[in-house]
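Journal club prep — side note

Before the paper discussion, L.F. wants everyone to see what a predicted structure for a comparable chain looks like in token form. Sequence:
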Amino acid sequence: MSQSTAIQGLMLKNWACPCVCLMACVTGFAQTSSAQFDATLQQQTATITLPLENLAPAIPPERLNENAYPEVAMRTLTPAQSSELARLRTLAQIKTTGIAPPQRAAHVPIQATTSAEAAWILGLLSLHGVAMPIDKGQAKKWFQQSAGQGLLLAHAGLAWCTIEECSAPSDPRGAQASIELLRQVNAPRALYLEWLTLTRRIRKSQASEPKTLMQSTPDSGASTSPLPYKTLILQAAQLGDVQAQIELGIDCASQMQLKESLVYFNAAAHASHVAVGNAQIITERIERATHLETSTASHSPHANASSLLKQARQLHRGEGVPANFTEAIRLYRMAANAGSKEAQKMLQLIYARPAADGQVDVTWMQQLQDVDLASPVPQPSEPAPAFWLRREPTALYDLLPPMWRLLK
């Protein structure tokens, strides 16, 4: 039987059934065992974290591009961009004399003046589908040309292509030689790519292991395990790597360390529109959590029933704050005492299905998070719209010259 059908069946049993005795039993159970229920609930939910509606996992099965570009983005080339693209293509075809191009500082975007630099930028444009269709195979060829002409930064592209299957199966171990050459000109990005190769190797080894049994508890959508090799990615972030800062920001948010998450996103904001957007999301979450904590602490038993119910639902569902079932039940009771029929229904549901030991069933509490209490017979409602903290399209996107970063 599906979860939705089970919930509807129990709801019909509680409201459609005319049996007064059943309702009296439920109500009596709620009144006589609420103190014991709360004590057990406090103990059982102490370590439960349901932070954000849907948070991208700290180590995704692949680098997802969830709205990685701003919603408002240029979709056609300006005259200046058309001219620059033609210049890059012409410059990239010039035969070099074997003299290595200047190796620029990592934080200075390259404005191509040599064939190697032009090939590097064309590789980035091909990889991201900027000003041309996405062509990973062609991107790798441009990176190979650039690296062959002596531009060490181009080894970032070769390392990425080796890790992420530009034109061949992924080979995280094979990226190490390119990472070592990249370290000479961009140590922070080399550290990040080294961390990425290690995490990809973990993923590949886990994929070959036998499948484990699924857990019975619902997935909260948050990461509960720490990042592997965290010392390595912390070092990259401390040295200023934008991709490492974004990854750590997402990881902190998944652990509900919102203030720490905001620090990382703000640090990357100078070079990443994605980091700016993530920082805005986290700022809103912090503000909502602060407002909710202030308002719930100041409520009297005679506060507005609708407001109490709304805040109980927020704490029950973990909307912008960690889910807190104990506090949610307290607010449901206050709302019910203030006359909220919906709160009364929720309390009846909560107490109608205890765990096997007669105490709180935390899984049942989680399943009740999206119940629509406004209908005559409560039923599952549409869950809150998901939002995503985002990553850049690739670990090379911030290396594009600024004039190309908003071009889709």
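L.F.'s comment for the group: Confidence is low (pLDDT under 50) at residues 10-33, 43-68, 70-74, 209-224. Keep this in mind when we get to the figures.
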